Amino acid sequence: MPELALLEEVVDKVRPLLGQGKVADYIPALASVDAGKLGIAVTTVDGETLGAGDYLEPFSIQSISKVFSLTLALTLYEEAEIWSRVGKEPSGHSFNSLVQVELERGKPRNPFINAGALVIADLLQSRLGAPKHRMLELVRQLSQNDKVCFDKQVADSEYQHSARNAAIAYLMKSFGNFQGDVDTVLRTYFHYCALKMNCADLSKAMLYLANRGKTLDGIELISQVQTRQLNALLATSGLYDGAGEFAYRVGMPGKSGVGGGIIAVIPGELSICVWSPELDGNGNSLAGTAMLEHLSQRLGRSIF
Ligand code: GLN
Protein backbone atom coordinates (compact mmCIF):
# COMPACT_ATOMS: atom_id res chain seq x y z
CA MET A 1 0.00 0.00 0.00
CA PRO A 2 1.40 3.42 -0.90
CA GLU A 3 1.78 5.62 2.16
CA LEU A 4 -0.74 8.36 2.85
CA ALA A 5 2.11 10.88 2.56
CA LEU A 6 2.67 9.77 -1.05
CA LEU A 7 -0.99 10.28 -1.97
CA GLU A 8 -0.87 13.74 -0.38
CA GLU A 9 2.31 14.49 -2.32
CA VAL A 10 0.58 13.46 -5.57
CA VAL A 11 -2.31 15.85 -4.89
CA ASP A 12 0.03 18.74 -4.01
CA LYS A 13 2.23 18.07 -7.03
CA VAL A 14 -0.60 18.64 -9.53
CA ARG A 15 -2.30 21.60 -7.82
CA PRO A 16 -0.41 24.10 -10.04
CA LEU A 17 -2.13 22.54 -13.08
CA LEU A 18 -5.56 23.76 -11.94
CA GLY A 19 -6.90 26.35 -14.36
CA GLN A 20 -5.26 24.77 -17.41
CA GLY A 21 -8.17 22.52 -18.41
CA LYS A 22 -11.87 23.02 -19.05
CA VAL A 23 -14.79 21.57 -17.09
CA ALA A 24 -17.31 19.65 -19.24
CA ASP A 25 -20.07 22.07 -20.18
CA TYR A 26 -22.32 20.09 -22.53
CA ILE A 27 -24.92 19.97 -19.75
CA PRO A 28 -25.50 22.67 -17.11
CA ALA A 29 -25.38 20.14 -14.25
CA LEU A 30 -21.72 19.37 -15.01
CA ALA A 31 -20.70 22.92 -15.95
CA SER A 32 -21.46 24.11 -12.42
CA VAL A 33 -19.06 21.68 -10.69
CA ASP A 34 -16.27 23.28 -8.61
CA ALA A 35 -13.21 23.10 -10.91
CA GLY A 36 -10.69 23.21 -8.06
CA LYS A 37 -11.30 19.69 -6.75
CA LEU A 38 -8.51 17.13 -6.53
CA GLY A 39 -8.89 13.67 -5.05
CA ILE A 40 -7.17 10.29 -5.11
CA ALA A 41 -7.97 6.93 -3.52
CA VAL A 42 -6.24 3.58 -3.74
CA THR A 43 -7.53 0.12 -2.80
CA THR A 44 -5.13 -2.81 -2.51
CA VAL A 45 -5.87 -6.46 -3.21
CA ASP A 46 -5.62 -6.94 0.59
CA GLY A 47 -8.75 -4.81 0.84
CA GLU A 48 -7.29 -1.65 2.33
CA THR A 49 -8.37 1.78 1.05
CA LEU A 50 -6.52 5.04 1.49
CA GLY A 51 -7.26 8.47 0.05
CA ALA A 52 -6.13 12.09 -0.06
CA GLY A 53 -7.61 15.44 -1.09
CA ASP A 54 -11.31 15.49 -2.02
CA TYR A 55 -11.48 11.70 -2.22
CA LEU A 56 -14.73 11.43 -0.28
CA GLU A 57 -16.65 13.91 -2.38
CA PRO A 58 -19.07 12.30 -4.86
CA PHE A 59 -18.90 13.26 -8.54
CA SER A 60 -20.56 12.20 -11.77
CA ILE A 61 -18.76 9.07 -12.96
CA GLN A 62 -19.93 9.47 -16.58
CA SER A 63 -18.05 7.15 -18.95
CA ILE A 64 -16.36 5.25 -16.12
CA SER A 65 -19.77 3.52 -15.95
CA LYS A 66 -18.95 1.93 -19.32
CA VAL A 67 -16.65 -0.47 -17.44
CA PHE A 68 -19.50 -1.55 -15.17
CA SER A 69 -21.93 -2.01 -18.05
CA LEU A 70 -19.51 -4.14 -20.07
CA THR A 71 -18.77 -6.19 -16.95
CA LEU A 72 -22.47 -6.71 -16.33
CA ALA A 73 -22.92 -7.76 -19.97
CA LEU A 74 -20.07 -10.26 -19.58
CA THR A 75 -21.97 -11.86 -16.69
CA LEU A 76 -25.16 -12.17 -18.78
CA TYR A 77 -24.07 -12.98 -22.34
CA GLU A 78 -21.89 -15.39 -24.23
CA GLU A 79 -18.84 -13.41 -25.29
CA ALA A 80 -19.43 -14.10 -28.98
CA GLU A 81 -22.82 -12.37 -28.72
CA ILE A 82 -21.20 -9.23 -27.33
CA TRP A 83 -18.29 -9.11 -29.77
CA SER A 84 -20.47 -9.70 -32.80
CA ARG A 85 -22.05 -6.32 -32.05
CA VAL A 86 -19.12 -4.24 -30.82
CA GLY A 87 -15.40 -4.28 -31.70
CA LYS A 88 -12.20 -4.27 -29.68
CA GLU A 89 -10.15 -1.65 -31.51
CA PRO A 90 -9.14 1.87 -30.49
CA SER A 91 -11.27 4.43 -32.30
CA GLY A 92 -9.05 7.37 -33.25
CA HIS A 93 -12.15 9.57 -33.16
CA SER A 94 -13.81 11.55 -30.38
CA PHE A 95 -15.88 9.53 -27.89
CA ASN A 96 -19.18 10.71 -29.36
CA SER A 97 -18.28 10.48 -33.04
CA LEU A 98 -20.75 9.23 -35.64
CA VAL A 99 -18.20 8.94 -38.43
CA GLN A 100 -16.94 5.44 -37.75
CA VAL A 101 -20.40 4.12 -36.98
CA GLU A 102 -21.41 5.12 -40.48
CA LEU A 103 -18.21 3.94 -42.16
CA GLU A 104 -18.20 0.60 -40.35
CA ARG A 105 -21.85 -0.18 -40.95
CA GLY A 106 -23.19 0.29 -37.44
CA LYS A 107 -20.57 -1.68 -35.49
CA PRO A 108 -18.84 0.56 -32.94
CA ARG A 109 -15.08 0.25 -32.59
CA ASN A 110 -15.09 -0.60 -28.88
CA PRO A 111 -17.36 -0.69 -25.81
CA PHE A 112 -15.86 2.45 -24.24
CA ILE A 113 -16.89 5.04 -26.79
CA ASN A 114 -20.51 6.21 -26.64
CA ALA A 115 -21.63 4.11 -29.61
CA GLY A 116 -20.19 0.95 -28.06
CA ALA A 117 -21.63 1.68 -24.63
CA LEU A 118 -25.04 2.31 -26.19
CA VAL A 119 -24.92 -1.15 -27.79
CA ILE A 120 -23.97 -2.64 -24.41
CA ALA A 121 -26.85 -0.74 -22.77
CA ASP A 122 -29.12 -2.14 -25.48
CA LEU A 123 -27.91 -5.68 -24.64
CA LEU A 124 -28.54 -5.08 -20.93
CA GLN A 125 -31.96 -3.56 -21.58
CA SER A 126 -33.07 -6.59 -23.58
CA ARG A 127 -31.86 -9.14 -21.01
CA LEU A 128 -32.72 -7.44 -17.70
CA GLY A 129 -36.17 -6.55 -16.38
CA ALA A 130 -34.81 -3.58 -14.45
CA PRO A 131 -31.41 -2.61 -15.89
CA LYS A 132 -31.08 0.61 -13.90
CA HIS A 133 -31.84 -1.10 -10.63
CA ARG A 134 -29.48 -4.00 -11.43
CA MET A 135 -26.64 -1.55 -12.09
CA LEU A 136 -27.27 0.23 -8.81
CA GLU A 137 -27.21 -3.11 -7.00
CA LEU A 138 -23.91 -4.02 -8.67
CA VAL A 139 -22.06 -0.78 -7.92
CA ARG A 140 -23.38 -0.69 -4.35
CA GLN A 141 -22.10 -4.21 -3.83
CA LEU A 142 -18.73 -3.50 -5.48
CA SER A 143 -18.12 -0.29 -3.54
CA GLN A 144 -19.69 -1.63 -0.35
CA ASN A 145 -21.64 1.58 -0.14
CA ASP A 146 -25.45 1.48 -0.11
CA LYS A 147 -25.60 5.25 -0.48
CA VAL A 148 -24.39 5.20 -4.09
CA CYS A 149 -27.21 6.54 -6.27
CA PHE A 150 -28.08 8.15 -9.60
CA ASP A 151 -27.92 11.92 -9.80
CA LYS A 152 -31.41 12.54 -11.21
CA GLN A 153 -30.56 16.11 -12.19
CA VAL A 154 -27.60 14.93 -14.29
CA ALA A 155 -29.61 12.08 -15.85
CA ASP A 156 -32.46 14.45 -16.78
CA SER A 157 -30.04 17.04 -18.11
CA GLU A 158 -28.33 14.40 -20.29
CA TYR A 159 -31.73 13.38 -21.62
CA GLN A 160 -32.61 16.97 -22.49
CA HIS A 161 -29.36 17.23 -24.46
CA SER A 162 -29.45 13.79 -26.01
CA ALA A 163 -29.43 14.67 -29.72
CA ARG A 164 -25.98 13.29 -30.50
CA ASN A 165 -26.32 10.05 -28.54
CA ALA A 166 -29.80 9.57 -30.03
CA ALA A 167 -28.33 10.11 -33.50
CA ILE A 168 -25.66 7.46 -32.81
CA ALA A 169 -28.29 5.00 -31.56
CA TYR A 170 -30.60 5.58 -34.54
CA LEU A 171 -27.68 5.24 -36.94
CA MET A 172 -26.83 1.86 -35.41
CA LYS A 173 -30.50 0.90 -35.55
CA SER A 174 -30.54 1.70 -39.27
CA PHE A 175 -27.79 -0.90 -39.68
CA GLY A 176 -29.68 -3.43 -37.55
CA ASN A 177 -27.31 -3.17 -34.57
CA PHE A 178 -29.79 -1.86 -32.01
CA GLN A 179 -32.72 -3.93 -30.81
CA GLY A 180 -34.56 -1.96 -28.16
CA ASP A 181 -36.52 1.25 -28.11
CA VAL A 182 -33.92 4.02 -28.54
CA ASP A 183 -35.52 6.36 -26.01
CA THR A 184 -35.69 3.68 -23.30
CA VAL A 185 -32.09 2.58 -23.83
CA LEU A 186 -30.88 6.20 -23.84
CA ARG A 187 -32.53 6.76 -20.48
CA THR A 188 -30.81 3.70 -19.06
CA TYR A 189 -27.44 4.78 -20.53
CA PHE A 190 -27.82 8.31 -19.10
CA HIS A 191 -28.62 6.92 -15.67
CA TYR A 192 -25.45 4.84 -15.76
CA CYS A 193 -23.45 7.97 -16.69
CA ALA A 194 -25.18 9.86 -13.87
CA LEU A 195 -24.02 7.50 -11.10
CA LYS A 196 -22.61 9.57 -8.28
CA MET A 197 -19.61 8.10 -6.51
CA ASN A 198 -16.45 9.29 -4.80
CA CYS A 199 -12.83 8.22 -5.36
CA ALA A 200 -12.95 5.78 -2.44
CA ASP A 201 -16.15 4.14 -3.80
CA LEU A 202 -14.66 3.81 -7.27
CA SER A 203 -11.26 2.50 -6.20
CA LYS A 204 -13.08 -0.18 -4.16
CA ALA A 205 -15.54 -0.95 -6.93
CA MET A 206 -12.78 -1.45 -9.51
CA LEU A 207 -10.71 -3.74 -7.32
CA TYR A 208 -11.86 -6.78 -9.34
CA LEU A 209 -9.82 -5.46 -12.29
CA ALA A 210 -6.67 -5.64 -10.17
CA ASN A 211 -7.69 -8.84 -8.39
CA ARG A 212 -8.28 -11.39 -11.18
CA GLY A 213 -12.01 -10.71 -11.27
CA LYS A 214 -12.58 -10.99 -7.51
CA THR A 215 -14.50 -8.20 -5.81
CA LEU A 216 -13.67 -6.56 -2.50
CA ASP A 217 -15.95 -9.07 -0.77
CA GLY A 218 -14.18 -12.00 -2.43
CA ILE A 219 -16.80 -12.91 -5.03
CA GLU A 220 -15.66 -13.88 -8.52
CA LEU A 221 -17.51 -11.35 -10.68
CA ILE A 222 -15.78 -12.29 -13.94
CA SER A 223 -13.08 -14.87 -14.62
CA GLN A 224 -9.35 -14.29 -14.46
CA VAL A 225 -9.10 -14.49 -18.25
CA GLN A 226 -12.01 -12.08 -18.75
CA THR A 227 -10.33 -9.65 -16.35
CA ARG A 228 -7.11 -9.77 -18.33
CA GLN A 229 -9.07 -9.19 -21.53
CA LEU A 230 -11.00 -6.29 -20.01
CA ASN A 231 -7.75 -4.70 -18.85
CA ALA A 232 -6.33 -5.06 -22.37
CA LEU A 233 -9.33 -3.19 -23.77
CA LEU A 234 -8.95 -0.50 -21.11
CA ALA A 235 -5.27 -0.09 -21.95
CA THR A 236 -6.02 0.33 -25.65
CA SER A 237 -9.35 2.20 -25.59
CA GLY A 238 -10.10 3.44 -22.08
CA LEU A 239 -8.91 7.00 -22.64
CA TYR A 240 -10.48 7.61 -26.06
CA ASP A 241 -8.16 9.48 -28.37
CA GLY A 242 -5.70 9.97 -25.52
CA ALA A 243 -5.08 6.24 -24.95
CA GLY A 244 -1.57 6.33 -26.44
CA GLU A 245 -0.53 9.38 -24.45
CA PHE A 246 -1.98 7.81 -21.28
CA ALA A 247 -0.14 4.51 -21.89
CA TYR A 248 3.07 6.49 -22.42
CA ARG A 249 2.72 8.64 -19.32
CA VAL A 250 0.88 6.36 -16.89
CA GLY A 251 1.30 2.81 -18.20
CA MET A 252 -1.85 1.33 -16.62
CA PRO A 253 -5.21 0.11 -17.92
CA GLY A 254 -7.63 2.95 -17.20
CA LYS A 255 -10.98 4.54 -17.91
CA SER A 256 -11.93 8.19 -17.84
CA GLY A 257 -15.20 10.09 -17.68
CA VAL A 258 -16.09 13.67 -18.55
CA GLY A 259 -16.95 14.29 -14.89
CA GLY A 260 -13.16 14.37 -14.36
CA GLY A 261 -12.73 10.93 -12.82
CA ILE A 262 -10.23 8.34 -14.02
CA ILE A 263 -9.90 4.80 -12.71
CA ALA A 264 -6.69 2.84 -13.28
CA VAL A 265 -5.28 -0.47 -12.08
CA ILE A 266 -1.96 -2.12 -11.40
CA PRO A 267 -2.96 -5.76 -11.98
CA GLY A 268 -2.24 -7.97 -8.99
CA GLU A 269 -1.70 -4.98 -6.72
CA LEU A 270 -4.19 -2.14 -6.56
CA SER A 271 -6.97 -0.09 -8.09
CA ILE A 272 -6.87 3.68 -8.14
CA CYS A 273 -9.37 6.47 -8.70
CA VAL A 274 -8.41 10.10 -9.25
CA TRP A 275 -10.73 13.04 -9.72
CA SER A 276 -10.26 16.57 -10.98
CA PRO A 277 -13.04 18.10 -13.12
CA GLU A 278 -10.97 20.09 -15.62
CA LEU A 279 -10.47 18.15 -18.85
CA ASP A 280 -7.87 18.14 -21.61
CA GLY A 281 -8.70 18.28 -25.32
CA ASN A 282 -9.60 14.59 -25.45
CA GLY A 283 -12.11 14.85 -22.59
CA ASN A 284 -9.80 13.26 -20.01
CA SER A 285 -9.04 14.82 -16.61
CA LEU A 286 -5.93 16.95 -17.00
CA ALA A 287 -4.74 16.95 -13.39
CA GLY A 288 -6.12 13.42 -12.92
CA THR A 289 -3.79 12.09 -15.60
CA ALA A 290 -0.91 14.00 -14.02
CA MET A 291 -1.73 12.47 -10.59
CA LEU A 292 -1.60 8.96 -12.07
CA GLU A 293 1.62 9.77 -13.92
CA HIS A 294 3.27 10.97 -10.75
CA LEU A 295 2.01 7.99 -8.76
CA SER A 296 3.24 5.47 -11.34
CA GLN A 297 6.67 7.10 -11.37
CA ARG A 298 6.93 7.23 -7.60
CA LEU A 299 5.80 3.58 -7.28
CA GLY A 300 8.00 2.53 -10.19
CA ARG A 301 5.04 0.70 -11.76
CA SER A 302 3.83 0.28 -15.32
CA ILE A 303 2.34 -2.68 -17.14
CA PHE A 304 4.83 -2.10 -19.95
N1 GLN B 1 -22.74 11.25 -20.70
C1 GLN B 1 -21.64 11.50 -21.59
C2 GLN B 1 -22.10 11.32 -23.03
O1 GLN B 1 -22.78 10.38 -23.28
C3 GLN B 1 -20.50 10.59 -21.25
C4 GLN B 1 -19.29 10.87 -22.07
C5 GLN B 1 -17.99 10.68 -21.33
O2 GLN B 1 -17.85 10.61 -20.12
N2 GLN B 1 -16.95 10.70 -22.12
O3 GLN B 1 -21.78 12.11 -23.89
UniProtKB/TrEMBL annotation:
Keywords from the UniProt entry: Acetylation, Hydrolase
EC number from the UniProt entry: 3.5.1.2
Gene: glsB
Main EC class the enzyme belongs to: hydrolase
HAMAP family referenced in this protein's UniProt entry, alphabetically: Glutaminase
Annotated Pfam families: Glutaminase
GO MF annotation terms: glutaminase activity
InterPro entries: Beta-lactam/transpept-like (IPR012338), Glutaminase (IPR015868)
Lineage: Bacteria, Pseudomonadati, Pseudomonadota, Gammaproteobacteria, Alteromonadales
Organism, scientific name: Shewanella septentrionalis
UniProt-recorded name of the protein: Glutaminase
UniProt similarity note: Belongs to the glutaminase family.
Subunit comment: Homotetramer.
Residue numbers binding substrate: S63, N114, E158, N165, Y189, Y240, V258
Transmembrane region(s): none
